[in-house]
Amino acid sequence: MSQRSLVVRALWFVVVGWWATPLVVNVAWFLNATIIGLPLGIKLINLVPTVLSLKEPRLLTDPDSARGQRSLLVRAVYFVFVGWWVSWFWANAAAFFAVTIVGLPVAFWMFNRLPVVTSLYRFDG
Fold it and tell me: Which residue ranges does UniProt annotate as crossing the membrane (predicted)?
């Protein structure tokens, strides 16, 4: 599967991505606050770049890029001690930048790196 065109991704952002991304982020952190919802919350955080601009994970377009991801154990320990709270601040800072025209490029950069900040999951392989 190849990446969608820049025009399609830009239209998605203008029509859906700008309002859906903060919604997904907040639902994810609500789920992360529960033990039962934690797996779904992490999945939602990992999908933030897709919700924002239809960006596809490289894992779907290039299965070989899955090599090099940190182990699940390392990612879990990082999430418990660092990721859950740092990523909350990160996402809110990104949302703040997103409401300004000047900060929009920074917001995109930050939202695309949210999976790494949260659980060391590299969205781009």
Answer: 7-29, 35-52, 72-88, 94-112
Q: What are phi and psi of 119, to 5 degrees?
A: -140, 20
Query: pLDDT per residue over 29-63, tens digit each?
Result: 899 888 899 899 989 988 988 999 998 876 644 55
Inter-helix orientation angle 18-32/84-98, to 10°: 160
Question: Percentages helix, strand, coil for the chain, rounded to the nearest 5?
Answer: 75, 0, 25
115, burial (CB in 10 Å: exposed 0-12, middle 13-18, buried 19+): buried
How many Cα atoms occupy the beta-carbon half-sphere of 51 within 13 Å?
19
* φ, ψ (nearest 5 deg) of residue 27: -65, -40
Amino acid at 84: W
Find where tokens 């596809």 sit. Answer: 56
Whether the predicted model's global pTM rises above the 0.70 cut: yes
